[in-house]
Every structure is written in C-alpha cells, then in structure tokens.
Design brief:
Blueprint (H helix, E strand, L loop, with lengths): L2 H11 L14 H9 L3 H4 L3 H37 L27 E10 L1 E2 L9 E12 L12 E16 L4 E13 L5 E14 L10 E16 L2 E13 L10 E14 L2
Antiparallel strand pairs: 1-3, 1-9, 2-9, 3-4, 4-5, 5-6, 6-7, 7-8, 8-9
C-alpha cells in the first residue's frame, strides 16, 4: 500500500464521500486511487467516465514529465557553462614576415621570390649612338639583411640582399638577345601601410648578341638603378612595379664600348616567406 492508498482509505473510512482536487502532478496519485478503488464517488462513475479520468491523469503525467525534461534540457547549457572553465582565447599567430602589422618593417628572417616582366626602351645617352629596345623577364630571390633600421625617422626600413637572373630580346633596331646575373642591394621603406616603396642598385655580368657600334663582344657588365613599390594584397603576397635604368658595357675590355642604355618598366608579383 502506498501513501495515496492509505490516505484515501482513511478518508473513506470516516465517511468522506466527496473530494474536490485538481489532478495535477502532486494530486494525480490520489485521483488515480479515487477511480481505482470502490469508493462511493468512484462507484457513481460510469466505466467510460472512469476511463476518461484515467486518460486525463495519464496525459497530465506525461505532460508534467515532458515539461520537467524540457526545463532540465534548457537549464543544462547554463549549468555546463557555469561550471566549465572558460575556453582559452585563441592565440593569434605572429607574423613570420613582419615586425608587427603589414608594412611595419620586415623581420630579419623574411625572404621572397619575384617574377617580373616588362619593356625597356633604348636611349641614346652617355655616348650610345643607337637605341636598343628590349623585352625583359626577371626572376629574383631576396633576403632581409638584419633588423629594421632608422627607428623614429622617415627613412625607417630594411636592407635586403637580392640575386636576379634576367633575360630577353631586342625587338627594335635589330633582333638580338641578352641575359644577365646580377646581385642587388635594396632598401625597403617601412611605411606602416600596404604600400612599401624601395630603392635598389645592382651590378653584375651579362651576355648579349648586340653588336657594334655600341657593343663589341658577347661578355658585358650590367649596372642597374631601380625605384619601385610593393602593393601588398595580403600579408605575404604583393604586386610589384618598378622603373629601372639598365646599362650594358664591357668597362673598356674591348672596343667599341659605347654601351647600351635602357629604361625598363617592369611589373610582376612577389611572394614573401618567413622562417
């Protein structure tokens, strides 16, 4: 015998014949006993009424169970969040290229590969009697030479060592070829923006088919002076444009040695890499 049965039998034993109750979650056991037993109030119910009462009690029981379950489910995330340790913040990966934000100056470990192409109209200057127009392709590798220089000054930036392999052909005046290997010293200005200008000088060796009256042999030296800019599309990829002065001559090793002079307009892409 459970508590509801004992209570109802005791009440029926003292002559109670009427009971008013809201058959909710706490009273449904008492209502169930009222229907199940042979109490006077229950006897007056028809079988269909008893069945209806039992169904109502069952539905109320199911509803209460669902509500309790839903309440527990809704409260669970709050309980979990309140007891769980806060998730650690994600550490932002430090750049392996920049000393801070893009354009703030390169780290000493930064290096890059560049591919550029352009045209180099010839000029009759510095004693050269003919203009040799060239189409050029350039492949180069660069590596920063230490920390950012000139802190606190407008010229703040990095020195960079570069090695360039270039080649091309003459398309005006004659059809000749040229190839060269040139080490460069570059200075990249740290502007704090995605626009990073640079100045560059280089001196190397060349071979060419350009003949007299400007040049007299296959072997020639090349001298270069460049001004350009990187426009960074991301933290490690840039569009690069530059204007360079290119001079070819043999330094008097053989004659004639008037030289070939060009001003080259180059554009390309540069990919930067970290450690």
């Amino acid at each position: 015998m459970n508590g509801a049965q004992g209570l109802f039998k005791a009440l029926a034993g003292v002559g109670l014949d009427t009971c008013f109750a809201n058959p909710g979650t706490s009273e449904m056991h008492l209502a169930y006993e009222m229907v199940r037993t042979n109490a006077p109030a229950a006897k007056e119910m028809k079988g269909s009424h008893q069945f209806a009462v039992l169904m109502v009690i069952l539905l109320l029981s199911l509803g209460a169970t669902v509500n309790l379950t839903g309440a527990e489910t809704q409260s669970q995330p709050a309980t979990t969040n309140s007891t769980a340790k806060p998730a650690p913040e994600l550490d932002l990966a430090r750049s392996s290229i920049w000393q801070g934000e893009v354009g703030a100056g390169f780290l000493p470990s930064a290096r890059n590969f560049a591919v550029e192409a352009g045209v180099a109209p010839g000029m009759t200057v510095f004693g050269s009697p003919q203009a040799h127009d060239l189409a050029l392709l350039s492949l180069s590798y660069g590596h920063m030479l230490g920390q950012v220089q000139g802190e606190g000054h407008w010229y703040r930036g990095n020195f960079e060592g570069r090695l360039e392999l270039f080649g091309g052909g003459e398309f005006s005046l004659s059809e000749q070829w040229v190839i060269g290997l040139t080490p460069h010293l570059r200075y990249d200005f740290a502007t704090g923006t995605r626009w990073v200008p640079f100045l560059d000088i280089g001196a190397g060796v060349s071979a060419t088919g350009i003949s007299p009256p400007d040049l007299s042999g296959t072997f020639e030296f090349n001298l270069q002076g460049t001004a350009g800019v990187h426009w960074f599309l991301s933290d490690n990829f840039a569009l690069t444009g530059e204007v360079r002065l290119l001079h070819l001559s043999c330094a008097g090793i053989h004659q004639p040695n008037a030289g070939a002079n060009n001003i080259a307009f180059m554009i390309g892409v540069t990919r930067f890499l970290g450690k």
